[in-house]
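User: Hey, quick favor. My workstation is busy. Could you predict this chain's structure for me?
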Amino acid sequence: MNQKPSAAFIFASWAALLIGFVGYLVSLYNAEMLLNEKGYYFTILLYGLFSAVSVQKCVRDRLEGIPVTDLYYAIAWISTLAAILLLIVGLWNATLLLSEKGVYAFSFLLALFGAIAVQKNTRDNAVGVPTNVRATQED
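Assistant: No problem, here it is.
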């Protein structure tokens, strides 16, 4: 039987998501770069957050016996890795200070971690007991 997440872990998860997301956006807002470059980095953030949540959902669904196609599972992983790779390539080629590149990289990763943790907590609170455990208990 799954335990519900503690209030402290829920708070820490939301804090990680918000600090990473807001830190990334504030850095982007203050950056001296063209609008199309800002759009690139903003799109990578949104793409990364969505794909990371999708990976978490796929992994969790499979653990709970909920069918997930291999194709969707692979797409979710490839999308997450592509978002990270696109950020690395963008930062590698950017004419930013090394400290600025570090802020983008770490705030991006913190936001991804926070999104995954918030998704996990949301699902734990909504579901409670996994589907395959409920079926076993009813037998």
